[in-house]
Amino acid sequence: MISFKTLLAQENAAPELIDLVAVILSTCHHIAEQVGHGALGNTLGATDAENVQGEVQKKLDVIANDLLIEALTAHGSVRAIASEEEEHARLACSGAPYLVAFDPLDGSSNIDVNGQIGTIFTILKARDDVPDHSDEQFFQTGRDQLCAGYVLYGPYTTLVVSTGAVVHEFTLNKSSGEFISSKKDMVFQQGTREFSANMANLFYWPKPFQNYITSLIAPQPANTRFNMRWQGAMVGDVHRILARGGVFIYPSDTRDVAQPAKLRLLYEAFPMALLVEAAGGCGYTEAGRILDTPLTQLHQRTPVILGDKNWANACFTALLIIN
Ligand code: AHG
Ligand code: MN
Ligand code: MN
Ligand code: MN
């Protein structure tokens, strides 16, 4: 039974970095326990607050956010923290080497229906050229990530983590709190004819992309047809394609000219793109590679295409016709 510490050490991850990942994971174990109480705990339902993105915060969004901030602030290796649920970056420990950004609870709309939810995180190097507490600390590209991962609180709790070289999957032993290796070196499966997209938005996608997706679901011989899955939680949908291939797509939407994309670059697209690319897949926005996109606003949004190298490329090309 190999622990995540051993596997990350084999990739020459610094001991301090491994220690920081351990803090995130023990907090995720705690979140998993809270999630597991369901209706018997005081964790379901909404608060009466909104986050900076105008979303009503669920109780679990706030619980998971507070647990992560408390643990990371106490740890001493984190200079600044950024969260989906907080307007600005917050100072943790001046002069410390790392930055952590996270989506404390991804898939909030699934909380009350016992659907898939998870925590997504990324770790970057702190910058000495901007103030310790500033949003600018995080203004880096996806290639600057030192480590990224997610914990999926499904029927069992799964961790997928990478420093950018290889991707490993672990399963939480709920009694010991340890994440035990369950898939070493995940490799993206090519050729799976399954895509993940919110088809309810089809008519609001750019027209050539509508045509492309419609061509996939048009009647065709059984062995060439495409299948569709949508969990409504990026963490669950991306886990599915990492586990069995396919493509996850969240394109821009023509309804909102000011804010055409939904997903957030820093704590959703960057970490998922690092994992997908390290497994041999590919990640695009509508303008280039996700990992090459510079972050210029903490809660910057981006269109997302993640998956099978050839297929992600075809989706990107279909979108490029428009741009
Ligand atoms: P969050 O719950 O962290 O706000 O993120 C929700 C995101 C993402 O997880 C998912 O892919 C997408 O929203 C689902 O959007 P739809 O409402 O289009 O299903
Ligand atoms: Mn949200
Ligand atoms: Mn999210
Ligand atoms: Mn969230």
From TrEMBL:
Mg(2+) 1 binds at residues 84, 103, 105. GO terms for biological process: fructose 1,6-bisphosphate metabolic process; fructose 6-phosphate metabolic process; fructose metabolic process; gluconeogenesis; sucrose biosynthetic process. Substrate binds at residues 106-109, 198, 262. It is an enzyme of class 3 (hydrolase). Gene3D superfamilies: 3.40.190.80, Fructose-1,6-Bisphosphatase, subunit A, domain 1. One of its GO terms (cellular component) is cytosol. Belongs to the FBPase class 1 family. This is Fructose-1,6-bisphosphatase class 1. The gene is fbp.
